[in-house]
UniProtKB/TrEMBL annotation:
The keyword Glycosyltransferase does not apply. InterPro entries: DUF659, HATC_C_dom, RNaseH-like_sf, Znf_BED. GO terms for molecular function: DNA binding; protein dimerization activity; zinc ion binding. It comes from Arabidopsis thaliana. One of its GO terms (cellular component) is nucleus. Its main location: nucleus. Coiled coil: none annotated. Pfam families: Dimer_Tnp_hAT, DUF659. Residues 13-71 form the BED-type domain. It is found in: Nucleus. This is BED-type domain-containing protein.
Amino acid sequence: MDAELEPVALTPQKQDNAWKHCEIYKYGDRLQMRCLYCRKMFKGGGITRVKEHLAGKKGQGTICDQVPEDVRLFLQQCIDGTVRRQRKRHKSSSEPLSVASLPPIEGDMMVVQPDVNDGFKSPGSSDVVVQNESLLSGRTKQRTYRSKKNAFENGSASNNVDLIGRDMDNLIPVAISSVKNIVHPSFRDRENTIHMAIGRFLFGIGADFDAVNSVNFQPMIDAIASGGFGVSAPTHDDLRGWILKNCVEEMAKEIDECKAMWKRTGCSILVEELNSDKGFKVLNFLVYCPEKVVFLKSVDASEVLSSADKLFELLSELVEEVGSTNVVQVITKCDDYYVDAGKRLMLVYPSLYWVPCAAHCIDQMLEEFGKLGWISETIEQAQAITRFVYNHSGVLNLMWKFTSGNDILLPAFSSSATNFATLGRIAELKTNLQAMVTSAEWNECSYSEEPSGLVMNALTDEAFWKAVALVNHLTSPLLRALRIVCSEKRPAMGYVYAALYRAKDAIKTHLVNREDYIIYWKIIDRWWEQQQHIPLLAAGFFLNPKLFYNTNEEMRSELILSVLDCIERLVPDDKIQDKIIKELTSYKTAGGVFGRNLAIRARDTMLPAEWWSTYGESCLNLSRFAIRILSQTCSSSVSCRRNQIPVEHIYQSKNSIEQKRLSDLVFVQYNMRLRQLGPGSGDDTLDPLSHNRIDVLKEWVSGDQACVEGNGSADWKSLESIHRNQVAPIIDDTEDLGSGFDDIEIFKVEKEVRDEGYYTNTSEKLFT
C-alpha cells in the first residue's frame, strides 16, 4: 500500500499546529496522516484524531509513546483552549468587543478578506478591517483577537487565541509593520534558528529560493525532525549511490504503472527542444496521459536536428518504446526538420498523427499582434511604467500600499503572452494605480518631479487607458485559448477548436466593422492554418457533448469529415470502424442513454472523456474511440522548471559511466518536477522580480543606467514585507465556450486566407 501513497505538501491553509507533527499522503481521493514519532497511520478522523493521539487524550484511540514531552504539552494546551472556546461560544453575547480588550501590539494592523474570485482586493473594499473601535463596533459578527496581557506574554495555556464569530479564519494579514506573534517565544526562537540554518545551507550551495516551494521540502524537514538529535546526513557517495539508485527505481516503477493507462486512454509523445545560452541543443521526450506526464529521456540534438533521417529514426524508437498502438499523436514544434520527420512517421505508422504544438501557434498569433504599431506603442508605454516602479524600492512600496500587496506584473507562457497578460492586470488595477499617482504620498515623493518619473503621468491619461482596454478586448480571448491549450487541469483536445472560434467571435463582436476585425482574423488564420489540416482538433470538438449539442447542422456536416478521418487512422480494425459509424447515430440524435436528463445535465459538469466513460456503455466502440481522442493534450510545452535541470551536463561529461549516472539523475529530477505540476503546487514563485521570471519579464523590469545610479532607489532591504496570495483564483476557462456556433463567416474567412495564399511552410509541406 505504501507504494500507492503520494506525499502531499503542507499548505498555508492547514493552520492546526498538529499538521507539523505528521506526514500527509494522498491515497486515491482520500488523505491519510502518519505520526512522525511512532509512524502510526491514520486513515480517517482528520487532524483532530492525530492531535489527540499526540496529546495523549485517553479514550480517543491509541496514544503516541514516542512524542517529545514539550510537543505533547503544547498540543494538550491547544486542545484545552479549543474546548474552552467551544464552551464560551454558547455563552457569548452579540455585543461587539472594544479595542481595549485587544492584546497590545506595536504599529498598525490591517487585515483583508481574500477574494477567491479575482485574486486581489482593492484597498477601498468593504472587507478591509482596521484597528479602529468605530469600525469594530459596526461589525458585530466579525471575529477579533482577545487575550489577557500576562497570559499572552508568558506563553501559558491561555496563549490560545479566543475567537468570536464565524469569519475571522478567512482574514489574511496585509502590510503589518510589527505584530507580536501568537506563538510561544521559545518555540519561535527555536524555529528561527532552524530557518537560519536552512538559509545558510541553501545560500552556501547556490540553491534557488524556490527550493523551499518543493513538495518534498517539508517532508524532508519532518523526516529529519523525526530522527531526533544526532541524525547523520547522507554522504556524497550515498547520494551518488544507493539513494539515486532507489529514486531511479521508484520513478521507473511509476512509469511502468502508467503504461496501463496509456493502453486505455491512448497517449501523446511530447518533444521539447531546449537551447542553452552556449548554443547547446537538447531534445526532451515526455509522454502525456490524463493521469500524469512522465519524462522518458533526453538526447543530444546537435546532430539529430541537422538530419531529418536521424530525427525520424529517433521518433520511431520512441514510438516503439511507448507502443505504437498506444500513441495517438506526436507533438513537436513546426520547424522544417520536424515537418519532414512527422510526414515520414505518419507514413510508417498509419495509426497515429504528427501534430504541431498548438501553444506555439497561438503564441505566434500574440507575437504578431504585438508587432502592430499602436499595440506595440501601448506595450512600450506600460513597460516604461513598470520598469520605473520595479526599479525604485520607495515607489514599489507605495504601489503595493495602494494595490493591497498585488503586483502589476503577470508572468505567462511566453514573452508575448506576458505582455498581454500584464496589460490585463494593469487594467484590473486601474483605479488603484490612479489613486496612487494622485495621492499626497506620490506628490511628496522626490521621484514624482524627476524626468524619469514622468512616465507615471500615463496613468492619468485616458487615451492610454482606452488603448489598454482595446488591446485587452482583442487579446484576452487568445490568452484564454492559450491557457486552455496549456492546462494541467484537463486535456485540451475537446476545447481548442471552440476556444479559437470564440476568440474570433469576440474580436468581431467588439470591433463590428469587417474592415476593422478582418486584420486580426487574418493573423489568427495564418497561424492556425497549421492546425486546420489536423482532424484531431475538429474531432475533439465534435465528440465534446458540451459543444456538439450547441452546434447547427451545417457546422456538424463540416466536422464529420474530420471524425471519419480519425476513425480510419486511429482504428485499424474495419469491423470496429463500421460499429463506430453505426453508434454515431445515437450520439448525434441524443438517443438512448445520451438523451436521459442525467446525461444532458452532465454535458456541462463532467469532463468530456468522463462523460463518455459514464454514459457511453451502450455505444462501447464509439465511447472507447472518443475517450482516446478527448484524453489528449495539444501542447508539447510542460510547465516545469526546465531551466533549473542541467540536462546539458549529461553530454558535457566525457566518461560513459558518469554520463549514464547524470542521465539517471536528470530522469529523477525531471519526473519529480512533473509531480509538482498543477495549481497550488508551489512549483512557481509569485515574486515577479525573481530571476527565474526574467526570461518573460525582462522588458518589464530591466532598469536603465539612471535606475542603477539612483541614490538608494534600489535598496531591496527597504522593501515592505507583503503577503502574496498563495492560492491562484480558480477560473474555468471552458465554462462559456458552448453557447452556440452559428457564425458561418468565421469559416469563410479561413477559406479566403487559403485562397489568398497565406500558407505557412508547415502546412504546405506536410499536406500538399
